[in-house]
Design brief:
Length: about 120
């Protein structure tokens, strides 16, 4: 448990998983210490920082970028309409825009199987 806490910097921007079972929520930690942080499939070369295997997750699905002002921008890299429609921020599809500035406690959905909570307490 102590080793896990050393790896997790709760003050830095990070993502945690969400699940309908409260005991399974916020058990997975995705740190964001170096940018960009990429999201995609395992078969991509080079491998993304965050790997998902869902049907609606593309090889180079999205990335998180730290802006000069310290804000985190979420960019979807896909041109596939199904994947773009399946990517939601706070329950809203990103149909008209492919990027969005994230705020503390925003939720990000990668299709029906991956729900993440963005945390940036500072």
């Amino acid at each position: 448990m102590v080793e896990k806490q050393k790896r997790e910097n709760k003050r830095a921007p990070h993502l945690t998983n969400l699940n309908e079972d409260p005991q399974l929520s916020q058990q997975v930690y995705y740190g964001m210490t170096t940018f960009p942080v990429t999201v995609g499939r395992k078969c991509q070369n080079p491998q993304p920082n965050i790997i998902f295997g869902g049907v609606s997750v593309q090889r180079e699905h999205a990335q998180f970028i730290c802006m000069p002002n310290g804000l985190i921008k979420f960019e979807v890299n896909v041109t596939d309409e199904k994947a773009l429609a399946g990517t939601l921020v706070n329950g809203r599809p990103l149909k008209d825009v492919t990027s969005q500035i994230l705020h503390h406690l925003d939720t990000i959905y990668f299709g029906p199987g991956q729900m993440l909570l963005f945390k940036y307490p500072l």
